[in-house]
Write a structure and sequence with these properties.
A seven-stranded parallel β-sheet has the order 3-2-1-4-5-6-7, sandwiched between helices. It has a two-stranded antiparallel sheet with strand order 8-9. It is globular, with a radius of gyration of 18 Å. With 255 residues, it is α/β, with parallel strands linked by helices. α4 links the parallel β4 and β5. It has a single domain, classed as Rossmann fold. Helix content is 43%, strand content 16%. It contains eight helices and nine strands. It binds NADPH dihydro-nicotinamide-adenine-dinucleotide phosphate. NADPH dihydro-nicotinamide-adenine-dinucleotide phosphate (NDP) binds next to α1 and α6.
């Protein structure tokens, strides 16, 4: 039987593209997210296009009980997860801390930090027992730097740095690979979500330069996952050409 990958946040953007790139390699794919209709649509598409097996695992990663139950419900044939891609995440209501919404902070921390922990906790014991596996966490450029007005989102991705490094050292003796892939601007629903559905504002995020496409990051995820077993990419930062870092952007495309 083929290898199994679990991709969280597969209903859109990077996660959806990651699921498709693994389908091209004939992995068996568990796709997860809250929007079950989109998961079913993606399952039908991947199964039809690539003749792969896809299992739909709807869950809100913020909810510990729901996550636990989703793994209890996972059929035996799908339990031996080889690759976990912790991708589900979001940024919300970027503003200075004194004006920020504590509810937005809770949502980001619950999704980007606790969600990763809840899901990983379900997957790691099996990997440890089998002494094999690969956990790939999707970070961000803001895991490296903290631009103003984005502090709490950046804090969640800094927390992810600590989680990834902790996983790497703790899982070392079990031969489990751990990687953090940190994207810069990728054109996804991220901007629309962060601007709470305001399409005008969301458009501005990608104005004046060519952002990455979800497939660009998916290609990197698949690359790190398919390297020889003795090779571990620990951390990788991938930005559009127009983004040197979070403080240095070239938005002169339409000038
Ligand atoms: P999208 O908004 O396009 O996709 C986000 C995915 O996360 C969706 O599938 C969404 O599914 C899922 N998700 C959000 N909240 C939850 C939740 N509570 N439970 C389960 N799933 C959830 O954004 P991206 O593809 O861009 O984002 C993917 C990752 O990449 C995130 O971790 C983000 O922080 C990171 N990133 C993105 C960048 C960008 O510029 N786009 C830059 C750097 C990092 P659903 O709503 O159906 O639950």
């Amino acid at each position: 039987m083929g290898k199994i990958v679990l991709v969280t946040g597969a209903t859109a953007g990077i996660g959806k593209a990651v699921a498709e790139e693994f389908a091209k390699l004939s992995y068996r794919i568990i796709i997860s997210g809250r929007r079950e209709d989109r998961l079913n649509e993606l399952k039908n598409y991947l199964e039809g296009e690539y003749e792969v097996e896809v299992f739909v695992m709807p869950m809100d990663v913020r909810n510990k009980q729901i996550v636990e139950q989703a793994f209890i419900n996972l059929p035996d044939a799908w339990k031996q997860i080889d690759v976990l891609v912790n991708n589900a995440g979001l940024g919300l209501g970027f503003s200075p801390m004194d004006k920020g919404s504590a509810d937005d902070w809770d949502t980001m921390i619950d999704t980007n930090v606790k969600g990763v922990l809840y899901v990983s906790k379900q997957v790691m014991p099996g990997m440890v027992e089998r002494k094999s596996g690969h956990i790939i966490n999707v970070g961000s450029t803001v895991a490296k730097q903290v631009p103003k007005n984005v502090s709490i989102y950046a804090a969640t991705k800094h927390a992810l740095n600590a989680i990834t490094q902790g996983m790497r050292s703790e899982l070392l003796e079990h031969d489990i690979r751990v990687t953090q892939v940190n994207p810069g601007y990728v054109e996804t629903e991220f901007a629309l979500v962060s601007k709470k559905g305001n399409a005008e504002e969301a458009k501005k995020v990608y104005e004046g330069f060519k952002p990455l496409e979800p497939k660009d990051i998916a290609d990197v995820v698949v690359y790190v996952a398919t390297l020889p077993q003795h090779v571990n990419i620990n951390d990788i930062l991938v930005t559009p050409l127009a983004e040197a870092d979070v403080f240095n952007e070239n938005r002169s495309l339409n000038d």
